[in-house]
Amino acid sequence: MKKGKVLIGIAILAASLQGCVKLDEELFSEIPAEGYYNSKLSIQAAVARPYEHGQWCGWDGDRWILQELSADQFVWTQKGKHGYDDGQWIRMHGHNWDVRQGQIYGGWTGPYQGIMQCIQISNDIKDLDYSKFGMTEADKKRHLTELRTLRAWFYIFLLDFFRKVPIVEAPGELKAQSEPEEVFAYIEKELKETIPDLPKNSAVPGRWDQGGAAALLVRIYLNAEKWIGKPKYVECAQVAQDIINGKYGDYSLDADYRGPFRSGVGGYRSPENIFEFPHKLDIYNFGWMYNAMQHYAMRYAFDNDWGGWNGIHLTPSRDLNGNIYTDKLGKPYEKFAATDKRKQTFRTISGSGDYEGFFMIGQLYEYNTARGYGYDSTKMVNGSEEYNGKPLKFVDQVGRFSEKPGGRWAEGSHVATGEENSGVRLLKFPWLQKSKGLFMANSAPEIRLAEIYYSLAECKYRAGDKAGAAALIDAVKKRNFSTANWPAQSYVANPGKLTDDEFVDELGREFIGERHRRPDLIRWNRFGSSWWDKPADAKDKTVFPIPQKAIDANPDYIKPNGY
């Protein structure tokens, strides 16, 4: 096969925290390095900039959508006159995308923008005399190694999404599209070479260290069989075990099921989070997840002034008559046991940021201003569309219930037949009191030690060691249940429960909303299966097509990847 070439522009971006440029926009990259890097602070700001882009890339929009809305746990339904959006969410849910789908182009441009930032800033600082700025050569080496690791993280997106992508290492470089094996080998080499030069347990949250880089090796090894056709479960198990044993730093599972997701709140830092993106309101917002998932009126319940877009929610567990769907996949809310602490309705339980539950379901009540936390059960929040002036009650169903008295429902339950109260809302990433200074203080947990436990468990399970897999999963899972309720849920105590289907369900429960679901389903040969409002795929959709805009920008070089 003839290989194509690509020319990707370089953009040096100011230390703005607002959004990111497109690769096809006008680029402003002519500020001489010696003019920009005039203090220690300017160097630190430059190194931090690709991390800011990394948070946006992973947790703000297109890349999250590709990993979660293409899978079985989330959907963006049309709700009456809102949310059709040219049918893009219907196509995403039904695996009917094409080369012009905007999110697929975002899956291409977002990582490459980050890669270009890492390259440009590395080139700028490698020749600087750090001693002039009160820093050492060790500081420079650390910065360069961090950027190299971050660049490898960006490449993992591209390998996962598209397989055949250019590996670019210099500004303005023309490179052929590499085969998946070459991209994989490049990422592996970069990570192996950077680990020794990174510190253990970075003192600053959101900076790569040995544990984080090693965890990225676990990710690529776990998915290698699907990405490059060569299983690397033995290598995955070894690195995962080394991480658990403390070879790359000291980490431990959080005893509290909420701990990894409230890291950053009130100075708390979860010992489970190997790598997290810190947030702070109006400086480094965690806003997309809130806006995309929460109803316009949610601000009345949550002590903040954000409205939300009322878009994404869990795929429904129940049909129009209240019966649980029979599909193996999907119905995520009902996959949680009734005694699971995570299945509680989200509520704050103190004025200092304590809360319980991961989901919003049922009647929405106003925030209890007098008490400073929780809800006021005497004041219901009303809807503003189908339920204008009526109590707003979220249901684990999708249908035009407001129109049933007039005889509707003939259209069934589909992505296009939702209304404003459709679907359970995820609040695993807590939305805490703005009046207490806690709103958007929580970090995004990019890599948790729980992921390493589950990855090692999967390697053991695939190797026939189900007992070893059960023990690893139990070590994480037990925090979700009371002492009295735990024995019935333990895989060690009930070894027959841990089947292939159960493993897939358990991955869904533990990592819901964390951008894991699409690769998990692909790895377990379930991405092409049917679930709510989606038939089984007629063709392989496990790889996204190279976006048409990328091809059009360089038609002589960028070629379709065959999907």
Task: Describe this entry's structure for a reader.
The chain has 563 residues and is mainly α. The protein is built from 17 helices and 15 strands. The chain has helices spanning 33-36, 40-59, 62-68, 88-94, 102-125, 137-162, 180-194, 210-222, 224-228, 233-244, 287-293, 299-302, 449-462, 466-477, 500-510, 517-523, 548-553, and strands at 5-7, 74-76, 165-166, 174-178, 273-277, 312-314, 347-348, 355-356, 359-360, 362-363, 365-367, 375-380, 393-394, 425-426, 444-448. The strands form seven sheets. It has a three-stranded antiparallel sheet.
Structural topology:
Blueprint: E1 5-7, H1 33-36, H2 40-59, H3 62-68, E2 74-76, H4 88-94, H5 102-125, H6 137-162, E3 165-166, E4 174-178, H7 180-194, H8 210-222, H9 224-228, H10 233-244, E5 273-277, H11 287-293, H12 299-302, E6 312-314, E7 347-348, E8 355-356, E9 359-360, E10 362-363, E11 365-367, E12 375-380, E13 393-394, E14 425-426, E15 444-448, H13 449-462, H14 466-477, H15 500-510, H16 517-523, H17 548-553
Antiparallel strand pairs: 1-4, 2-6, 3-4, 5-15, 7-8, 9-14, 10-13, 11-12
Helix pairs in contact: 2-5, 2-6, 3-5, 5-6, 6-7, 7-8, 8-10, 10-13, 13-14
TL;DR of this structure?
This protein is mainly alpha-helical.
